[in-house]
Design brief:
CATH architecture: Alpha-Beta Barrel
Radius of gyration: 20 Å
Number of helices: 12
Number of strands: 10
Helix content: 40-55%
CATH topology: TIM Barrel
Mean pLDDT: 97
Order of helices and strands: EHHEHEHEEHEEHEHHEHEHHH
Distance between the termini: 22 Å
Structural class: alpha/beta
CATH superfamily: Divalent-metal-dependent TIM barrel enzymes
CATH class: Alpha Beta
């Protein structure tokens, strides 16, 4: 395998804070979490939430990340301010919608200062909760036009839509791979693409490898959030811990389609107080082993023949021999 980029969620490193920093008063700072992330063996990159993680001057933060032996993979946009509660790109007040768009442009500018070329848009606030609450066509047009404006603002930066069926809104404006592909096509910006979050895909009742294949067919897979879950909510469990075979197929499909980006772990050790360093190292080890199994599946003539005939029994036997070998 060529050199891989492994990135992770910075907020994970607040987990078990008082065990790691016994004298800590309150929550750990962003700089403390960066330093702790630097202890993870095999980790190469971080993603930063904008604007929440920009608590220092960017040169100070950039130096801290470099001192930790890491780099910034991309920026993750977060519209957490109270005024965005009923929408950022789809807010009914044009002034607040404009504020959200301009804030996103500033996030892109910040990412460029860190040397990052990816901005991920998880539009969790953009959606609706009730019948007769939304003008669906207008909300869709507002969302697509805002995404287009943001992408066109920075043609040198990849802008990626990450979908999720719901939460915090009851229904998201972009809830699944199909709506995202439609939005990217309507927006028409060449630097637009899609981020697939494994747990979100399960939550949307989709097959991860199928979603990846459709993105490769109609758009570009710009980002990958690896995690796992039981499909009923966004569990953020360790990669491969619940659905190892589906994770293997997901990674295999992405390799077949030429994915070159980072393997980003959007997992939640802080939800149950896990050691985030050990948790991240386990994610890296799991995915490294699965990618090695993908090499054995690559150009496997017997497997490709079984798939061409939709022979599920033979394909499962071949994968079992590779995946469950002693």
């Amino acid at each position: 395998m060529s050199e891989l980029k492994f990135a992770t969620r910075l907020n994970s490193f607040a987990s078990g804070a008082h065990q790691y920093w016994p004298d800590l008063q309150g929550k750990p700072s962003v700089l403390q979490m960066i330093a702790r992330a630097g202890k993870v063996k095999g980790l190469t990159h971080l993603d930063l939430n904008f604007p929440q993680h920009i608590t220092q001057a960017i040169p100070v933060m950039r130096r801290a990340i470099e001192d930790a032996g890491l780099a910034v993979n991309g920026m993750q946009m977060r519209w957490d301010a109270p005024q965005f509660k009923i929408g950022a790109f789809t807010h009914p007040d044009a002034a607040i919608r404009r504020e959200a768009i301009e804030l996103t442009k500033r996030g892109i500018d910040a990412g460029r200062e860190f040397g990052a070329s990816l901005m991920t848009l998880w539009m969790g606030q953009d959606g609706f909760d009730y019948c007769f609450q939304a003008d669906y066509k207008k909300m869709w047009e507002d969302a697509v036009s805002a995404v287009r404006e943001v992408a066109d603002y920075a043609p040198d930066i990849d802008v990626s839509i990450e979908y999720k069926p719901n939460e915090p809104r009851a229904y998201s404006i972009f809830p699944n791979v199909t709506t995202c592909l439609l939005a990217v096509e309507e927006a028409g910006s060449p630097n637009l693409g899609i981020t697939l979050d494994f747990a979100h895909v399960l939550f949307a009742n989709e097959i991860p490898a199928y979603a990846a294949a459709m993105v490769a067919r109609r758009s570009r897979l710009l980002g990958l959030d690896l995690n796992d879950g039981w499909g009923k909510r966004d569990d953020g469990l360790m990669a491969g811990s619940v659905n190892p075979r589906a994770t293997l197929e997901f990674l295999w499909q992405m390799q077949r389609d030429g994915y070159q980006g980072a393997y980003y772990f959007d997992t939640f050790p802080d939800a149950s107080g896990l050691d985030p360093i050990r948790e991240a190292e386990t994610n890296i080890a799991t995915v490294t082993r699965l990618l090695k199994l993908c090499e054995q599946l690559h150009d496997n003539a017997a497997l490709l023949d079984a798939i061409s005939r939709q022979d599920a029994v033979t394909s499962q036997q071949i994968v079992n021999d590779i995946m469950l070998a002693r």
